[in-house]
Specification:
- InterPro entries: DNA/RNA_pol_sf, GrpII_Intron_Splice-Mob/Def, Mat_intron_G2, RT_dom.
- Residues 1-77 form the Reverse transcriptase domain.
- This is Group II intron maturase-specific domain-containing protein.
- The protein is of the alpha+beta class.
- It has helices spanning 4-12, 35-49, 96-109, 118-136, 142-164, 168-175; strands at 17-23, 26-32, 70-72, 75-81, 88-94, 186-187, 190-191.
- The chain has a three-stranded antiparallel sheet. Strands 1-2 form a two-stranded antiparallel sheet. A two-stranded antiparallel ribbon has the order 6-7.
- A hairpin with a 6-residue loop joins β4 (75-81) and β5.
- The two termini are 49 Å apart.
């Protein structure tokens, strides 16, 4: 089922197609067919895994339509119609679970009674935000990045208000320029990383031939000598 002409051959005859996408021990089977075809593939998967001593998890294994969306590797993949047109696209969003996990980490670092110095807090937050945004920057995530940047900023502001007994007037005096622009939260040269500055590239054109990212390695001949005593 991996060759395009084979899938096209079956599609012209009204037969179902399937495709396996996997990463480590997580996988999803994409089926172009009916629900009965999908259930049959599920039974085939169970039979393949059984000799290996593995079973499909009833809690994590489900059959769903792509219009309802699926969660895979932190992404929510869903089939949606473009507004104002009749064109349908497969869109990739950020799942709710990674967002909850990110907020939990930020809350743990910005407790109002925390005595950790601000520079250490900013460094750790920046590490988390840079890694998180690099992973999700190819999803439909621009609005989500903006909302999370606002969440992180307010968490830090509330922490500083409690720590230094600042009022809102004190906050504006320290973080607003004479021109009325907000300065980034910083400490000893370390600025808070702004998630809104991350470039989101949702769709990338794929040429006729995709170059391999791996260097070409010349094959070598290995001679193995077996000795018996």
């Amino acid at each position: 089922m991996s060759l395009a002409w084979e899938r096209g051959y079956r599609r012209r005859r009204g037969l179902p197609n399937w495709r396996l996408v996997r990463y480590a021990d997580d996988f999803v089977v994409l089926v172009n067919g009916t629900r009965q075809d999908t259930e049959a593939v599920r039974e085939d998967v169970s039979r393949v895994l059984k000799p290996l001593g593995l079973n499909l998890s009833e809690a994590k294994t489900q059959i769903t339509n792509l219009a309802d969306g699926i969660d895979f590797l932190g992404f929510h993949i869903q089939w949606r119609r473009k507004k104002g047109t009749e064109k349908w696209h497969v869109c990739t969003f950020i799942s709710r679970r990674p967002i909850r996990q990110l907020k939990t980490k930020i809350r743990a670092l910005t407790r109002r009674q925390s005595q950790q110095d601000l520079q250490s807090v900013l460094r750790r937050i920046n590490q988390i935000l840079r890694g998180w945004s690099a992973y999700f920057q190819h999803a439909v995530a621009k609005n989500q990045f903006s909302a999370l940047a606002n969440f992180v900023w307010w968490r830090l502001i509330r922490m500083l208000k409690v720590r230094h007994h600042w009022t809102w007037k004190d906050i504006r005096r320290r973080f607003v320029t004479p021109q009325g622009h907000w300065r980034p939260i910083s400490a000893d040269g370390t600025d808070l990383f702004d998630l809104q500055t991350v470039a989101v590239t949702r769709y990338r054109r794929r040429g006729a031939k995709i170059p391999s990212p791996w260097p070409t390695i010349q094959p070598t001949t290995v001679s193995v000598e077996s000795r018996m005593r």
